[in-house]
Each structure stands twice: as C-alpha cells, then as structure tokens.
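To: structure subgroup
Subject: Chain for Friday's discussion

All,

I'm putting the inputs and outputs inline so they're searchable in the archive.
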Amino acid sequence: MLTVEKIGGTSMSALNEVINNIILFERSGKELYNRVFVVSAFSGVTNMLLENKKTGAPGVYHRIAKYQDFHRPLKNLIVQLKAINKQYKSIGLDLALADQFIESHIKEAETYLENLANILASGYVSKTGILQAAREILASIGESHSAFNFTNILQNKGINATLVDLSGFGDHHAFTIDQRIKHAFKNIDLENTICIVTGYAKGTEGIMREFDRGYSEVTFSKIAGFLKPKEAIIHKEYHLSTADPGLVGIENCIPVGYTNYDIADQLADVGMEAIHPKASKPLEIGGINLRIKNTFEPAHPGTLITREFVCEHKRVEVITGTDKLLIIDIYDPSMVGSVGSDLHIMQTFYKHNVSYTFKATSANSISIVIWEQDFNKKLISDLEDDFEKITVEKVAMVCLLGSNMDEPGLLGKSALALTERGINIKSAGFALRKVNIQFLIAREDFKTAIIALNKVMSQA
C-alpha cells in the first residue's frame, strides 16, 4: 500500500523515535518501502530563518528586510545547525558529510541573498518581490537540512532511502511546483525505496507567497494528489484529541478517532490545524483519506479524516477555541431597514485584507471577530469615517464541533455549563448545518470555559 506521509518539526527533532516508531515499527524488508515522507525542518530552525511563529521574534529574514547585515546571522546559523547535526551522530549520521552539506548549502544561499540585497538596495525593483524571494530561499534551508540528515541516517542503517530535494538549489528550470514534483518522481521506483522529501518546494508561483508557514503541508498535499496513495498520513507529537490535553488534562480527553474534512476546516478556522485548509482541499476533492497519528504512540491508529464520515450517533467530537481574537462592533442607527450596510463593511475589510472568523448582527450593529494579529488601525479609522461608533474588545472563542451534533438542548446545556462557572457569553452563533457552535467570552475565562464544556460533554 503506497502512502504519502508528513513528519512535523517537533517529531523530526526526535529522529530516533521517528525511525523506531514510524520507519521500522512492525516492518522489515520490502515492507519498509513504497512510502514517501515529506519532512519539516527540525524544531525551531524555521523560526531562526524567518521569525518565531508564536512570538514574532525576528530571524535572518528580518535583517535583510531592514537592510541590515545578514552575513553574521548566517554564520551563526551554520554553527547552530552543526550543533543539531551532532545530536544525531549516535544514531548513524555521518557528521562530517552532514556538516559539509549544510555549510555549502548556506554559502550558496548566501550568494543568492547577497545578489537580492544588492538589487534591493538599487531601488530599481519592487521591494515586495525581492523580499518574497529571500523568504523562499531562507525557508528552503531548513527542510533541505532535515531531509539530508534523515536520508543519510537511514542509508547508514542499510535502508534504501532516496533524497528528493525539491528546494531547487542549483536547478534553473522554470517549473511550477506541480511540474517540479512530477519531474522529481518520474524515475523513482517507489516499491523499492523510502523517499525523504523536503517540505519546501520551489516553484514559479512561490509556495510561500500564498501559503507562508503552511507550505510543508501544501507540498505534502500536492505530492499525495500526484501519486494517489491509498492513504495520506500526518505524524504529530500529539493526537487529534477531543480537547486540548494541556488545558483539560490528558486523562480527560481521548483521540477523536474519526471525523470529516468539514470538521478539519472548522478546526483550522480557530487555529487548531489538523491540516492547513488549503492543503486539505486537494485530498478531499481527490477522495484521499487523511490519518493523523501520534509519533510517540505508533500502535494507536490515530484519527481518520474522510470526506463522507458522519458520526452514527449524535455527539460533540471536539471542544476547542482560541484566546487570540478581537471583536469589532460597528454601530449606526441608520442601519435598520437600510440595504448594503453589511456589504459596505465587508468591502472595507476586503480593502485592508482582513478576514473574519465570526459575525453577528442586530438592527443597528454588526459584530465581527478577527484574529488579533490582523488588527489594523487604518481599518478602524476607515470604519469610524462611515459609521457612528466602533468598539474593539479582546475576546476568546470556545467551540463545539461535530459531524452529527444537531440535537435539542445542546445549546442550552453548553450555555448552562458556562453560566455555572460564572462565565458571561458576549455573543454566540452557529450556521444551519450545526457543525460548529461558537461562544464569545472574556479572554480570562478561556481555560475555565474549555474545561467546563469538556466536562459536561464527556458526561453526555
């Protein structure tokens, strides 16, 4: 059975466990092969190259963007990546070869970046295009590094492993990403090798231009779409669970087991990605099932995501949410009976490239929820020019998700669980299909709300 699998950065950093729990687990001989692994950079490496995904702390990229010296940070990067290499010598990495690879790779990247910096400094070309190219070059380093190391270790263990480097260094073909994938796999005998593939893929369209830090899952999805595997698998350091174990306690949640792509999209909408939504669409459309597995529990089947699944009995499958949202309330007494107020507001949001996750209306107001990171003072200023009063407030959202949870009393039971904890509901809503019931609450109540909802739903 051909599979296309993805290994996340945190799992990649535990390479010994990856080899034992994923590559070798209950397999030997020919059973090892007919598998394609798309790998992320080792944990923290892309943060060093670009910026910290959680805190926004700048990496090498921001030195280039601010016309600052980036040569010293690249030299420091070589030192740091060599230190990572040293961690894997004991499990079979050829340290001298790995160090030579990453040093020559970064030096080649440095040449490209130096040329870009000189063009940028000339002032003759668009800054946006040059910086996007720099971002692509830097991002590719992390996956080339991890894929090389992983392949080398497997080969040194006597496993036939093939490195498929889609980063395009030294390759001047004007391939799209799909063309590069097709070209890379055309002569590979999949039944007799394990392929280790870089999560970054170079293409004329620029994979980061549209997907930014979600690019490795897009590469994974595109490869699956091309190879048409029996199953696509993502290995993470945790299960896709009924609630966040870090909030409710690992003893108070279980793996979801089965769900569908619609619920996966709902999860992504509140920042709890089973898979990037733009990566899931080709799998869903192509009828390819997706399995989410825990790297550290190899015997567990994980959670299977399919296009058709609907739970046979009514239940909430996942309780989740986020405390990183803002609610923008637009009030104007002239809204009532007026056609086009909503359209006008949406055009203003579109103008500033701001998307929303939730919207509620009354006669004279429309409340819209956005990610705090997307907050734009000019957006608020433009809204204030057109409407009487604009209010902005920090909020959290908690959600009940399920493929079959449309039952009488669920909304009341949920609201009561929050009320009994003294949590005020600022707003609430759900679409007709009722796959996602959402509550807006104060940020300080977020953890308490998740725990309360998880407790009452686990007793159902």
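Points worth raising on Friday:
The radius of gyration is 24 Å.
The first helix runs from residue 9 to 13.

D.
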